[in-house]
Structures are given as C-alpha cells and as structure tokens.
Design a protein that fits this description.
Distance between the termini: 48 Å
Largest sheet: 6 strands, mixed
CATH class of the largest domain: Alpha Beta
Number of helices: 10
Structural class: alpha+beta
CATH superfamily of the largest domain: Creatinase/methionine aminopeptidase superfamily
Helix content: 25-40%
Order of helices and strands: HEHEEHEHEHEHHHEEEEEHHEEEEEEEE
Shape: elongated
Radius of gyration: 23 Å
Strand content: 15-25%
Number of strands: 19
Amino acid sequence: MSNDHLEHLAQFKAALQTQGLDAFLITDAVHCFYLSGFTGTNGWLLITAAQEQDYLVTDFRYQEQAAEQVTGLRIELQGASAVTTISELAQQCGLKTIGLDQEKVTLAVYAQLKEAMPQVTLLPSANPATEIRKRKNSQELQFIKKAVEIADKAFLHLLDYVRPGLSEKEIALELEFFMRRLGGTKNAFETIVASGERSALPHGVASNRILQDGDLVLLDFGTVYQGYHSDLTRTLYIGEPDGKAREIYQLVLRAQEAVLAQIQPGMKANELDAIARKMIAEAGYGAEFGHGLGHGVGLEIHEKPSLSPRDETVLEPGMVVTVEPGIYLPRWGGIRIEDMVVITPGGCEILTKSPKVLQLHN
C-alpha cells in the first residue's frame, strides 16, 4: 500500500467514528482499491472505527498479489465464502454495528450477511469514502493529469487522421489504440464518435456510419492511467462550416469559457451550471441543453460532485470536474465542448490542452 492509500484509510477511519458505527464493510472494487491499493477483482474490506486492525478478505488466487500490494491491513483468505469470513471477524472483534454502503451492497448480499451475523446490526449507510474522494491529493492529480495528457495527444493525432470515408468505429479504434500505446490501460468509457445527424445523440457511441463532407463529428473519449480517468469532448466539422454550425459552436464555446472564467471555491455546483444554462437559454436553445454542465472525475468516470441544477455541493480546492455544455438539435446534429479542471484556491486550473477548433483541415 502506498502512503496515498494509507492517507485515504486514515481519513476514512476518522470519518467513520462520527457515524457511530463499530465498522464499515466495503464490497466494491473501486473503494477497495482506494482504501487499500489492492487491484484484484475479489476483495472485501472490513474497516473498524476504534480498533487499530482492519482487514482485506480475498481468496487464494490473490494471496501473493495482496501481500505485494497491501500494507496496513491484515489479509484474510476467505473460507467457505467472504460472508462467512466477515462474520467470523465481526465476532472476533466484538462488533455490534456494521455499516454497509447503501449504493453498492445488493439485497442478496445484505440477506446473506444478516443471516450469517444475527448478533450484528447491519445499517445501510453513506460510504465515507464517497465524500473523501471528491478532493484529490497531489498523487491523484498527477495520475489524472497524465490521463488527460494522453487524451490530448490522441486528439491532436485525430486532427490528422479524421477524413471523409472513414467509419465512426474506425476512428474510435484509432483513438483507443493510440491511447494504449501512450500508456493508457483501458478506455475511460465506451468511446463516442457521432457524425452527421447522429451527433445530436449526446452519448452516441461509434457506429458503422461513414463520415462525409459537411458532417459534424462529436468526439468524446478518455483513458485510464493508474486507475484514474480522463474525459475530453471536441466537435469538428468536415469541410467549410455553415452559418448555423458556426453560430451554435460559438455559443457553446462562450458558455463554457464563461464558466471557466468564473469558477471559484465556495461556489455551489449548481451555480456553475446556471451560468452556462442561462446563456444558452437566452440564445433560444435552452431546451436543447438537456444534461448537466459536468461531473466529478477520478477513479470513476462519473463521481461527485455533479455540476447540475440539483447539486448544491460547495466547490473546494482539489475537486476535479468536467465543464461540458452542449446543444443538440434532432435531424441536424449536436455540438459539445468539454474540458477537465481542478478547483484551486484562486479559481481553477484547466487540465485539458486540446485546441478548440470547429473546422477540420486535412
């Protein structure tokens, strides 16, 4: 375990004590990695509030891997099942109340735990790690910046690669191979390449459609580096953009730039959304901007906070979010521009460096 994970674990235990629970059970792989550094696919964590000992429960396949990756937790190989082993540990530690992540634990697992531990009160609870993960430390920011850098280089490569006659899927594959060659471990999400009228689909994953002159091409992609994600959207026009494309592109760009110029710690997430939404609505396209302005990014591609009309999270230094206004017109197309930023004490640092150009020259 790196100092990074030890830091997260210490923050988690401190937060857990405020919930009045004896322990918390982590069953999902993302939070298991965040708190322990373990990258195996079968790992549960039992984190105690007051006791010094915490546990990683895994199986025989990951015995050596866990020993290499994890320090600060005791590694327990599961017996008949992870549920059985957790039950035995709860009894050994004298645990009376255990919190369960209300967003991750299934009803089936809950029922198994309840049957195995009738002496323990199981409480569906908010996972303290979800709140801690909103703010990235220096190591996490380093990994995110590398993931963003890989995506930026891939976009520059695309500017020379995209041309009429290619299919959306060919472009997506070129992106993915290129990012892998630069050190990305996998796609951050299913790559979106949406051309022509399909660009009006905000999440239009790549199809067999062939690019033509006069097409809008919406590209939304990212990679994963050391577990951390990047997210980048640019919209290109093949050929000479018409007046409508230029008008809508400039509107989306102005809305995005207005948000980037005004971001400050202490603002609420929905206040940022309102800046872009007001500009787009006043230009007559409010109904065509149907999603939130952005979202947090880290170990998952969508994390808290959400830059949406409903999220009143107060922005703090260290939060990493996307800023991605868009306008989508059925039977015409759509335009979205997306950057990733980290909130700083004085505003924000724009992590994305890709040029914002509408016209594709090749």
